[in-house]
């Protein structure tokens, strides 16, 4: 997860948002602790917000909340 995320940061700084998005997607799909996944999603949401993609950012921020505060499972 970490390498994809770090490379995505480099791509964002270089202005290569499409490549950064691919790498961020890979990072969110990789195994890792939920806290790190939430951090990746938060970074990605910030990238999208800064790029003016507010709907995408909103969707990603909601994913952060779902990772940090998973919905309660109904009791049987």
From TrEMBL:
InterPro entries xref list: TPR-like_helical_dom_sf (IPR011990), TPR_rpt (IPR019734)
Superkingdom assignment: Bacteria
A Pfam family this chain is assigned to: TPR_10
Protein name: Tetratricopeptide repeat protein
Organism: Streptomyces spinoverrucosus
